Amino acid sequence: MPSEALREARRFEEEEEKKLEGSLRPNFHLSPRVGWMNDPNGFSYYKDRYHLFYQYHPYNTFWGPMHWGHAVSKDLLHWEYLPAAMAPDKEYDYAGCFSGSAITLENGKHLLVYTGVSKEKTEDGRECDVQTQCLAVGDGEEYEKYGENPVIDAGMLPKNSSRADFRDPHVYFEDGVYKLVAVNRAGDGYGSVLLFSSKDGFEWEFEKVLKHNDDGKFGVMWECPDYFSLNGKKVLFLSVQEMEAKDLEFTTGNGNICMIGSADKDDNFVSEFVQTIDYGYDFYGQQTLLAPDGRRLMIGWMQNWDNINYRAGDCKWYGQMSVPREIRIENNRLYQWPIREINSIRKNRIEYSDVSLCGKKTFEGIEGRSIDLELSIKPENEEELFQSFSINFAEDKEHHVLLKYIPNEGVVEFDRSQAGSRNGIVHSRKCKVYGKAGYLKLRIILDIYSAEVFINDGESAMTLTFYTDVKAKGISFEANGNVNLSIEKYEL
Ligand code: FRU
User: Fold this and answer.
1) CA–CA distances in Å: residue 41 to residues 19, 122, 448
2) How far is the CA of 239 from the centre of ligand 1 (A)?
3) Ligand 1 nearest atom to the CA of residue 100, by list position
């Protein structure tokens, strides 16, 4: 029987959803049913459909006591909302049901593993979080919190582990054992990924520290871990707080990183390569799942804590998920590409092949705010490298978002400073491009308030949101020098 708090949240979302009818939303990216959304949670395939839960505050468009919103989909593009799955209604989670994951139990039930947040007074009188790991069991629609919650608390951890920063359990099944990774702030103040195991998914034991953020090399505290095998490598995904910039690889603030490595003979994770997952501004809290056909799919919160006050003027809902992406490891690098299901919603193809471009130009039919755009660029003459190539999109007389390629520097730059923002946030980001200078492939997915750019068949991705009036749908191209350009465009 759902608690009063959950029934209230469900009544509220059902009523308020009607008032949002007709308000502008992304076409195929999941946004909250009402109110506020952050991290994806419990991304899983259960009973023949994909389930995506999310950090949810239905009552307004700002973060508040976390509920779990719930949506299901057959193709990860058309979503159906289900009633909210959890509300913060227990002694151990009254301050929030924080991020977590899901797995199918051997008895066919769906198990949600999440962080319950409550509060305690510290010796100096401050109020502090107590974060513990908790369970809820369900059938894909109704979930009941486990009577023995919490199942993991800081009492099980190494000395000096934080009680306040201990969260985001990611559960998986390996060699007949349930395992989960969660993050904790260790005694030195930096994040650690901790590994736990369980025979049945209910009784958990602490195994070891899988990875520690030595000397704060990658930010300070970590969040939202995901640990899995992919193309013969072990991969650890993390969201990172208080990152320090390093070259073009890591940028300041809240970021995301991918560690690629292997497991040693004692099953410790040895990180060999570290890179950013998404080089744009708006990607955080990513989760992956293994699809029934063997693909590893990733989805992220298409926002960033640093940018949450940049929003549409008449914002009626806040937050959205990225397009789900197929990921792979190739030459010790993470590659990502929009799920192939997107091909089935592409329509009205327009193509321009091998066009010579020098100066600024628009092309008939190449415009829109919900489109899939594939571009291929090369020098018009082999011996003569152009200085730059740029695209403006979401363009009207006064606004645009700029994407610029500078072959000599091997860099792609995003700039949303002319997109109509009034916020003093980061408006420009750069990303290194590999491969031969002057040759570039781009795939750009636009969906009303967002752009996701995939560079050179997915060797890097850059994601951003922008809230330019949707009537600004122009696209123009500009070359400084001589560029040979091919364009393929679809409406989505
Ligand atoms: C990451 C995060 C998680 C936490 C959740 C709370 O975005 O801070 O660590 O579980 O959001 O909403």
Assistant:
1) 26, 30, 24
2) 10
3) 10
Digit-coded pLDDT (tens) for 376-392: 999 999 899 999 999 99
> What span, in angstroms and rounded, lies between the C-alpha atoms of 163 and 160?
9
Q: Which residue's alpha carbon is nearest to atom 8 within ligand 1?
A: 223
Ligand 1 close to Cβ of residue 39 (< 6 A): yes
Whether the CB of 66 sits within 6 Å of ligand 1: yes
Which of 168, 185, 284, 287 most suits a substitution to test ligand 1, by most atoms within 8 Å of the C-beta? Answer: 168
Which percentage of the chain shows pLDDT scores above 70? 100
* 208: β partners: 195
Go through 208-240 and write b for each residue having 16 or more CB atoms within 10 A of its CB, e for each that does not: ebbbbbeeeebbbbbbbbbbbeeeebbbbbbbb
Residue 7: what are its φ and ψ, rounded to 5°? -65, -40
To test the pocket of ligand 1, the residue of 56, 97, 98 to mutate (highest count of ligand atoms within 8 Å of its CB) is 98
Average pLDDT of span 178-182: 98
Residue 125: phi and psi, rounded to 5, are 85, 0
Q: What is the pLDDT of residues 398-427, one digit of tens each?
A: 999 999 999 999 999 999 999 999 998 889
Contacts of residue 69, Cβ cutoff 8 Å, sequence gap at least 6: 13, 32, 33, 37, 53, 54, 55, 56, 58, 81, 84, 85
Residue 123: predicted pLDDT: 87
Q: Look at residues 290, 214, 292, 228 and name the one whose alpha carbon lies nearest to residue 258.
A: 228
Atom of ligand 1 nearest to the CA of 99: 10
182's tokens? 């969660």
Q: Considering only CA atoms, which residue is closest to atom 9 of ligand 1?
A: 223
**Cα dihedral across residues 133, 137, 142, 144: positive or negative:** negative
